[in-house]
Write a structure and sequence with these properties.
The protein is built from 3 helices and 5 strands. The chain is α+β, with helices and mostly antiparallel strands and about 210 residues long. Strands 1, 2, 3, 4 and 5 form a 5-stranded antiparallel beta sheet that branches.
Length: about 210
């Protein structure tokens, strides 16, 4: 199926495109809200700025896809393959990403508020350089963006990272396996930018208060 075929059928009211082969398709800026794209092949597809709000992309292959600025609010991405996908600035509010593979995906400035990433894998995603696979146990918390434009993330992880469901703190390439480790780093008197460090400390302490 070509991208033009898909868009023509969508414009006529069709919404079911399960298992469609759209490898490398140019769908930049396309409106595919509510489309059923379960198990579709969207490898290396161009979906920059596309509207995929409430679309069903469960089991879809989006490996290497460009989803920069795409609207994926409340989309079903359960079990989707997003390895190496570019999700910079994407809106993933309330998205279902349970079991999704986000290995090496670029989530810079993506909005993950309320997204469910239970059992999702994020090796080298969220901007970190740690090569261990991160298996999440629940939603990712966006704690804010600092003066340099880095997003402060917090999530509960299984296995070696965090362990026992404890909070893991992430900002740029810095990854801390506990709240205490993060507070020690940014709250240290030797931290070069004290104002910035205290910004991180204040945000992280919000999690501490919830514990």
């Amino acid at each position: 199926m070509t991208s033009s075929d898909l868009l023509k059928r969508y414009a006529k009211g069709e919404r079911e495109f399960q298992r469609a082969d759209l490898n490398g398709a140019d769908l930049n800026g396309a409106d595919l809200s509510g489309a059923d794209l379960r198990s579709a092949n969207l490898r290396s597809a161009y979906l920059r700025g596309a509207n995929l709000m409430c679309a069903d992309l469960s089991g879809a292959d989006l490996t290497g896809a460009n989803l920069t600025g795409a609207n994926l609010m409340c989309a079903n991405l359960r079990g989707a393959y997003l390895t190496g996908a570019n999700l910079t600035g994407a809106n993933l509010r309330g998205a279902d990403l349970r079991g999704a593979d986000l290995t090496s995906a670029n989530l810079t400035s993506a909005n993950l508020t309320g997204a469910d990433l239970t059992s999702a894998y994020l090796r080298s995603a969220l901007g970190q350089e740690d090569e261990r696979a991160i298996k999440l146990l629940g939603p990712v918390e966006n704690l804010g963006i600092d003066a340099r434009g880095y997003t402060l993330w917090a999530f509960r992880a299984a296995g070696g990272l965090g362990g026992n469901g404890r909070w893991v703190i992430q900002a740029s390439c810095r990854l801390f396996e506990s709240i205490i480790d993060a507070l020690r780093h940014w709250g240290s008197m030797s931290y070069p930018d004290r104002k910035r460090g205290q910004w991180f400390v204040r945000r992280i302490k919000l999690l501490w208060d919830e514990e």
